[in-house]
Amino acid sequence: MDRIRKTIIALMLLWLPFAVTAQPSKVKHVILIGCDGFGAYALPQAEMPQLKRLMQEGAWSLTARSVLPSSSAVNWASLLMGAGPTVHGYTEWNSAVPEIPSADTSRFGLFPSVFSLLKEQRPEAVSALIYSWQGIGPLLEKAATTIRVAGKDNDDFCVDTAVAIIKSVKPVLTFVHLDEPDGVGHNIGHRTPEYYKELQKVDARIGRIVKAVEDAGIANESVILVTADHGGKGKGHGGKSLDEVQIPWVVYGRGVQKGRALTQPVITYDTAATIAWLLRLKMPESWRGMPVKEAFR
């Protein structure tokens, strides 16, 4: 009996590393909130009680990184497509089509995104895309999104719409793009009082989306992820400074470790990989992102 017991224990120890990285059970909804131009440098000093509560009750990194250049379309593409610009081909701040031919395409005609994976592998699943900056639209295949709303540079409209959709439809995957604080960063500047004041409004919008998830009765089976495309320096971005490259990455909800400061590097294309992993979607070979398993129990 002792020999059998020792053999069982040895097998358990052998499989333990695989057990602790299994997907959290019963994750049925992922809500991705993207805040344009939100540099990670700003979060410690910012008055953002809603987001900081998610950090305290979830996992987070303030050293996650964008791809280069630290500009909008190239990074939103990377975040949603699980790969960098040399693979997906979108290389400019306002790319509407790949400047480099994409190394792979989905059956919808664009480089595979987390939305196209969901549509291909779970065609019955409802997805929702709500975006403030119009540059988001060309990055995601229309046929791969169930609900698609262009907010026309109005973040409050986007949040109102997202709240209504989450409560009524309860999509499997929801992406809400908010254009601030990027606008204030460009018009007034990063690291200014006005920038930090705008982050208070961003925080309130995040809080409303989180509350909608709770009001919809799906909080116990949801994961909420808050991140950005890039930060900024002065009145711009696109360069190589850490203010421009480092972005917040905050995850909260089902199966997420509480108060966990992530120690492993996180790159923006890991976001798509993490969402695909949570929703049990098979990732294409062309993706370069890796699920951030450290964030989960």
From TrEMBL:
Top-rank taxon: Bacteria
Coiled-coil ranges (or none): none
InterPro entries referenced in this protein's UniProt entry, alphabetically: Alkaline_phosphatase_core_sf, Phosphodiest/P_Trfase
GO MF annotations, alphabetized: hydrolase activity
Protein name in the entry: Type I phosphodiesterase / nucleotide pyrophosphatase
Organism whose genome encodes this protein: Niabella drilacis (strain DSM 25811 / CCM 8410 / CCUG 62505 / LMG 26954 / E90)
